[in-house]
Amino acid sequence: MAELIVQKFGGTSVANLECLRNVMRIVIETRRQGYDVVVVLSAMSGETDRLINLAKTAVNEPDAREYDALVSIGEQCSIALLSMMLLDQGYPAKSMTGAQAGIITDEIHKKAHIEEIQTEVIWQELRSGRIPVIAGFQGITPEGDISTLGRGGSDTTAVAIAAAMQAKECQIFTDVDGVYTSDPRVVPQARRMASITLEEMLEMASLGAKVLQNRSVIFAGKYKVPLRVLSSFTPGPGTLITYEDITMEKPLVSGIAFNRSEARLTLFGVPATANVPSQILGPLAEANIDIDMILQNSGEGNTVNFTFTVNREDYQQATNILERIAQKLSAKEVTGDNKIAKVSIIGVGMRSHAGVANTVFSTLAQEGIAVHLITTSEIKISVVVDEKYLELAARSLHTVFGLDNELREEFDPVSTLI
Ligand code: ADP
Ligand code: ASP
Ligand code: MG
To answer: Which ligand lies nearest the alpha carbon of 48?
Structure first.
């Protein structure tokens, strides 16, 4: 059999019939080059949002199983459309839902993890000369219920299939021509990187650069999947995720990521005992709410103040839970802010350099931007700022760390693509 390439096309790449025709041409061209192709598609752009809004308008708290049954249909529309276009051109294609493609997940609806891909059925299609066109973002639980993988989950579907089938390359086609030093929509001076190390890509994705879903990068790292991000609108080599350790050649800071969907909660005046964190975090974990940053400091008298951040979507639920905990622990007050954002600078080159943090804080101070929370690791520094300062913070840090693309000052990488 020929070598295999997995090609995933995101929402803007399948936004309408013209875009789907463009996808069809890319797939046909790859076949012409002699490869077998497995295609993974997202829903047409805006469609998943529309379905989520429908669910939220229908009822206050949609049942998780039915939510997944609903939001998974966007992908089913695009795979059927592309398959009929390919068939119409004489290319044997076959649309496959997550269940039909043997994508087995756990039972955590809305954020399910892929546990296994029963690849035999996909291999069978390939052996029969067909092009499997698989719905991203969805799978099936062992009980036979439809599950979804969280926003941006089609990336993970594609990487997981590429890993399970040991594809030559997993290509993520999107609306930018690669991974940039920062989101080119927010930082117009951002530059495309020819390659990025897995470690840096992991940080970029988990800190908000949605060009690749976080979990897809984790998967890629675990199975060393050759992974490339490229544009479905402009030809080019894109950005390759690399696995070698090339720390020596790397600049201090390679990229700036941010996440505006953050919220902060603080429990003030909790009587100090050893297990304050677990009494607060336990009930949140039970409700499947992910906690990001955590800060505990001493309050008045023998009390502590406990601050943490969550995804903005979980803010209301987390506030309700925290109010119950506050009563139980006789804490003084719960406060929160859901208009905050996290800005992070990332670089494996930071490992051996002191003073990066100081540059971050003095740059932000010069711009008059207050920092509410800070976390650091060997290769990243994250700060929480008011959401209204997000763009200013990202752009000024991009400049101060020498990432600006001077030559392309007038170039807008996004609007020139479509
Ligand atoms: P798709 O629908 O193809 O999955 P996404 O919207 O999920 O596309 O991801 C692509 C978007 O990611 C780009 O349009 C860009 O705005 C954003 N993005 C954020 N950070 C980066 C980055 N560092 N490099 C490139 N794109 C980025
Ligand atoms: N359609 C899903 C979403 O919008 C999955 C994806 O596009 O990757 O989140
Ligand atoms: Mg995406």
So the answer is: 2
